[in-house]
Amino acid sequence: MKRSLRSVALILLFFASNVPHQAQSQSLPTVASIVDREISRIEDLLVNVAEAMPEDKYNFSPEALNIPGSDYKGVFSFAAQIKHVAASNYFLFSSVTGDKVPAKLFNDGKGPDDLKTKAGILKFLKDSFALGHTAASTLTVENMLQTPAGGKSARLHMAEFGIAESYNHYGQMVEYLRMNGIVPPASRKSSD
Fold this sequence. Notes:
By secondary structure, the chain is mostly helical. Helices cover 56% and strands 0% of the residues. The protein has six helices and no strands.
């Protein structure tokens, strides 16, 4: 993993050093701006999906469909998917910023049990991405391969893993919407 992160760093440095002088005077992307843009993209997708599901369907799980031959026993509900993403964001992005993870998140990565409403769960999700933007803003070419105190992975890896984990759950949440007859926002025609 460290080898691939070093490769990314070298590629970034190569492109930055080979940009014509005129282009260098313009604002070049930074590690922080690239990661922040990735966070913004998945944040937009997840928040839109979370907003698209009606509150009365937040406890939906494919297990309730009783599809013959399926194995959905014990899978996360829609709300649990969102809370898991948000809790994971706090764990991963806190390791980048050096912030302490809120104690209420130590619930097997499932987020706070007391969050039951759509509004509360959405706020938890949005707040976790706010921490993600803060984490992205701290990344530099000089520190992105550093391992935070007490950590085992580089700061860039932790930020990127948070993004990848979010995409994984986004895909599942899209299927939950479709199982409820809802077209996911990203799949709707622009005229909708």
